[in-house]
Amino acid sequence: MTDAKAPVSTAPVLAVDGLTIALPRGGDRAHAVEDVSFAIQRDEVVCLVGESGSGKSMIAHAILSLLPSGVRVAGGAVAVNGRDVARLSGSDLRAFRGGEAGMIFQEPLSSLNPLKRVGAQIAETIRTHQGALPRDAMRARVEGLLAQVGLPTPGLLARSYPFELSGGQRQRVMIAMAMANRPALLVADEPTTALDVTTQAQILRLIDDLRRERGMGVLLITHDFGVVADVADRVVVLRGGRVVETGSAEAVLRRPRDPYTRALIDAVPRARLRPPAPRPEGAPVLSVEDLRKTFTVRRGLFQPPRRVVAADGLSLSLHQGETLAVVGESGSGKSTLGRMIMRLTEPDGGAIRLGGEDLRSLDGEALRQARRGLQIVFQDPFASLDPRQKVGDAVARGPMAYGTPRREAMATARALLERVGLTAAAAERYPHEFSGGQRQRICIARALVLRPQVLIADEAVSALDVSVQAQVLALLAELRREMRLAMIFITHDLRIAAEIADRVIVLQKGRIVEEGATRDVFSAPREAYTRALLDAIPGRRFFEHPGFTREPVAPEVA
Amino acid sequence: MTGIRRAAGIGIALGAWIVRLVLVVLVIATFNFALVRAAPGDPAQVMAGQSGGADAKLLADLRAEYGLDQPYAVQLVRHLGRVVRLDLGTSTQQRRPVLDLIRERLPATLLLTVTAFTLALLLGSTLGVMAGLAAGSAADTAFTVLSLVLYAMPVFWLGLMLVLVFSVWLDWLPPFGYGTINARLGPLGQALDLLKYLAMPAASLGAIYLAIYARLMRAAIIEVAQQDFVKTARAKGLTGAQIVVGHMLRNALVPVVTVAGMQAGALVGGAVVVETVFAWPGLGRLTFDALLQRDYPVMLGVFLILSVIVILFNLATDLAYRLIDPRMRAGSA
């Protein structure tokens, strides 16, 4: 019954023809996308590449007729297996969604109903399209799907709630749900952006495997040319709602014709390994010794609490002007380390010394004074600025809290805003008037206005577009030189770590598994865990070996 | 092995909960004691006043009889001692055990408040869902205005207006009371009769909560509708009704349950006013009379019972939470 859906004609699985999507009146532009055309054949992965605001997500939503209210298709057509999606309505449309075309989204946690067991959510998809099955048959189907997407113990997993799963497991569940009715087309909207590097590699491989197994067409939306290099057969590059370039992945990656495509490819951080700077002499600015932290997670009313080791004897030292990258998968304890150094999270044991002063022995006013020397920039530039505080105030409040008169603090704030690439007039505006990259510049200004000795950047560029990421990284590198800053750069993206750091420590489950000069660690990793992390970097083979030709099948990583 | 450990875990958790409950009740009893004593006047003065003349000897005798001549600390310890033994003392006015008085009145109050609460929650949520799904439409605007009116209306005034319309003008419902006296009715007839008397008090008490829950539900539905998992449900090919019932409703209930649980105490407090308007023979009337007469034992007894009800309501909210949201079952989430 399901196999009857497999296309018999030679029509492409997806044909987007002259698609124009109109935005509601009063927006910053009239059309989200204009005159976009491309097609996907059976057994083909097409990547739709673009930065935020390019309209790539709108196209994905238009394919399943899921555009938000107020946004509508103003021209052109989308056809799946030769059928015009716009003409579908009512039960035909519902049969198409989740039947012929499956979709997965960026944030697997928010895309699953938090209050329903994942097995039930998958079963619902099957029931909707194939009718009710006997209980046991349904359970077998669901568990079969979970096994197919590579989840161990499917029986147990089906009875779990989304919050009990890891990010990668959740995305696998989403994929199982999208695959439940053997769709001819899978639309994946940034499916790996929220995942760490090893999980990303696994999910991409899974999508690729399923594609081959079932001969699906896959539309994969991404902003990362590394991902393109790994999985795409063909590429469509979007800018401001228009297609600037399209072609086979090989051709576009090697011989990009459009300057914008070239800029995007160049912006991919590429692990250009620099010779390590000689380690500075003298006492370190910051030293951390034997830091320990175990979180106790309360579980059910009647269950014993679970203990999670976030730091198991972490030691590090940092000299003036030096950048140390902290890398590892999610849950390895990277962020906890940064928060403990800031004393935002209280360690269970160990010592933190800033300029010879023991931070852990300080409290009250003494701690407040010492904190001045330690500043942090967080990952999410939207959540880390007060939406009701003017940008100038946000920056000037720091020095004012340490006794600088308001007028003087505002002048410093304006000067610093200019230094990070904004205008002095930005001080009078509110955060919502700025883009993500600009906001992150504001956060950097806010951290640096206190002239700290140490800056902690916790995934500070992870939420940004690749080209913006490159600009912010360049800014940080300049500021580091200018201010002789010592920097701790926490990131899950090893390409960025390689780009910016002198030294690197690799964390796994709260332990340092490897550390050393970035070049040594990355070119000759000693530990299997480090090697696995490096192997998982998207597009690594392409970007590091210019003569490399993409293999048709991504090889299994040990 | 794990079964035994699990059972032991449940036992420990339950024991801890009961110990906490007892401690909370004792703290509340202490507070109530202090509050009641802080008001001017005492039962002896009222009784002496009622007996016609208040000479110093009579006052002193009365105070000695009820232990009011003792230092506050001694009185408090005695009071707490009685609370632990579930002995709430004897009413100074009615000369009957307080526990008996409360036992007579409690069912009427529970009937009134539970009915009002259930109606408000069910109707309010339903209206809220409808308004939330139609957000921005004319019906939604009408709903917003209506809920604002209900919200702004004083309980006693609403009660009086209901009486005016349904009893005086239309003569459909009895204006006050708790069942027709001396009516010879079967069990079903009795229930229907009681329902007639219950309708207006429950409606006036529940109106404001109905408005609150409806507005909360409306906001929650609008917010949930924008969540990614609703988009997922659409992408799966579900119908609108399947999405609302299967995915949105339970998620939207979380904030409503939070507020409903917190307001249960206020609901019982509001019952005092409604019971007075409709001559409903519940705890409200008992409290009102006891307040005027400085009937310390009755006041303390009623306050204690009300606080236990509020604590039980909180427990019920907690359990409802766990039922709705698996993340709550996991503790800290």
Task: Give a topology summary.
The complex is a heterodimer of chains A (558) and B (333).
Chain A: E1 14-22, E2 31-40, E3 44-49, H1 56-63, E4 72-80, E5 83-84, H2 90-96, E6 101-104, H3 108-111, H4 118-130, H5 135-148, H6 154-158, H7 167-179, E7 185-189, H8 197-214, E8 217-222, H9 225-231, E9 234-239, E10 242-248, H10 249-254, H11 259-267, E11 286-297, E12 306-318, E13 323-327, H12 334-341, E14 349-354, E15 357-358, H13 364-371, E16 374-377, H14 391-401, H15 406-419, H16 436-448, E17 454-458, H17 466-483, E18 486-491, H18 494-500, E19 503-508, E20 511-517, H19 518-523, H20 528-535, H21 540-544
Parallel strand pairs in A: 3-8, 3-9, 6-7, 7-8, 13-18, 13-19, 16-17, 17-18
Antiparallel strand pairs in A: 1-2, 1-4, 4-5, 9-10, 11-12, 11-14, 14-15, 19-20
Helix pairs in contact in A: 4-5, 4-7, 5-7, 7-8, 14-15, 14-16, 15-16, 16-17
Chain B: H1 2-38, H2 43-50, H3 56-65, H4 72-84, H5 98-133, H6 138-152, H7 155-169, H8 187-225, H9 228-235, H10 240-277, H11 283-292, H12 296-324, H13 326-329
Instruction: Just give the CATH class of the largest domain in chain A.
Output: Alpha Beta
Structural class of chain B: mainly alpha
Span between termini of chain B: 28 Å
Radius of gyration of chain B, in Å, reads: 25 Å
Number of domains of chain A: 2
Number of strands of chain B: 0
Q: From the coordinates shown, what is the CATH architecture of the largest domain in chain B?
A: Orthogonal Bundle
Number of domains of chain B: 2
Q: What is the CATH T-level topology of the largest domain in chain B?
A: MetI-like fold
- Uncertain segments of chain B are none
Helix content of chain A: 25-40%
